[in-house]
From TrEMBL:
Keywords: ATP-binding, Nucleotide-binding, Transport. The keyword Nucleotide-binding applies. It comes from Bifidobacterium callimiconis. The lineage of its organism: Bacteria, Bacillati, Actinomycetota, Actinomycetes, Bifidobacteriales. GO terms for molecular function: ATP binding; ATP hydrolysis activity. The keyword Nuclease does not apply. Residues 12-242 form the ABC transporter domain. This is ABC transporter ATP-binding protein. It comes from the Bacteria.
Amino acid sequence: MTMQSAQTASAVKVSRLVKHYGDMVALDYFDLDVKTGEIFGLLGPNGSGKTTAINCILALLVYDSGTIRVFGEPMTPTSYELKRRIGIVPQNVAVFNELTVVENIDYFCSLYVPKKAERAPLVEEALEFAGLQDFRKFRPGKLSGGLLRRLNIACGVAHKPDLIFFDEPTVAVDPQSRNAILEGIQRLNRNGATVIYTSHYMEEVEQICDRILIMDHGRHLALGTADELKAMIDTGERITIATLDLTDDALAATRALPCVIEATYDGRELDVRCRRGDRNLTDVLDTVKRFGANVGHLTSRPPTLNDVFLELTGKALRD
């Protein structure tokens, strides 16, 4: 395989996947194409079908129709050679409380690498990778939330998988551990692993993912880099103005501006969603001041992935 074809080959290719739970459609002709070597973000509100899609890809669920190929081969429940190339870091920490840190990593690695002599250096490398060398004899109950998450990751990646699924790996961890986890994921990727990443934290997704797919109701809604996704929506700028005396007339005049998509006021802050334009801030500020409002702190920012998500799905990611 040439370098160019290796870069563009699919690590995971899902075509027209359909999955029902009784009368409910969980996946509705869902498509996914993750290229080898990328960090791919998979986003969707709760109930959008993310977990169902991942479980189908891993051959943990039977689906109604469609095709799934991993590294170019069909994925089935008995595709053991393919499964050895996959690592999973689940959202809920899945370790044994009776085993020490090093024993946990060794156990999970043994599911893929039966020979202890081959496994030993992999376990040590995973310990070092997760920054857990000083905690090797600790049981999980003695670890902080951040260290426990890092152990969860070490157990999922010790066998050096080519494809790794990370499902919400930074939930409820401190900022230092979060940064360590994100840097670790990027390091795994630089060392050759393809990563599929789900998170509720949009800033993380924007920081580490090469491409992002937004899904809802079991369907593919939008795909692209963070910048490409932001260019797909109407919102070009978000303006917030602190003011305690905005009148109804001032709010109505703001909403009537050609650049304004939506304006809301909660008695303390005016929040204005604008289309792309060079004079948005000036136009909004002039309008507010014309009606005599006193203006405090104001901000203007380009759209975020949260804005993209809200506009495409009608929901906040946490809904």
